[in-house]
Amino acid sequence: MINHRKLTYILFVAILSLTIIGYNYWSYKCGYCTLASLLSFSAPAIILIGCNLLAAAVLVVVRLRKKRQDRLGQCDCGENLRNIWLFCPTCGDARKA
């Protein structure tokens, strides 16, 4: 079953793809571009792709960092640990560094 987050990403990619295809079709029909220019990347397109890749990399780093911080406050057994605790009160395991 697809969860809400995956469905949101799928819809976003589908709408974005349809928008790009629609714009390219319209500009081709109006004579603003040729078939060769539809398949090539212009300077603004390369800059936008680079910015999107950079933004995606930053997003991945931020999410991984947040997950790591969340794991530091929780033991493997599922017990939430306070900042001053060095050992888990439930299972006795040492806190992860």
Description:
The structure is a single chain. This protein has helices at residues 4-29, 35-38, 43-72. It is mainly alpha-helical. The protein folds into two domains: 1-40, no CATH class; 41-97, no CATH class. It is elongated, with a radius of gyration of 24 Å.
- Rg over alpha carbons: 24 Å
- How much helicity do the residues have? 55-70%
Alpha-beta classification: mainly alpha
Give the termini separation: 36 Å
Question: Approximately how much beta-strand content do the residues carry?
Answer: under 5%
Largest beta-sheet characterization? none
How many domains would you count in the coordinates? 2
Count of helical stretches:
3
Per-chain topology:
Blueprint: H1 4-29, H2 35-38, H3 43-72
Brief summary:
The chain has helices at residues 4-29, 35-38, 43-72. With 97 residues, the protein is mostly helical.
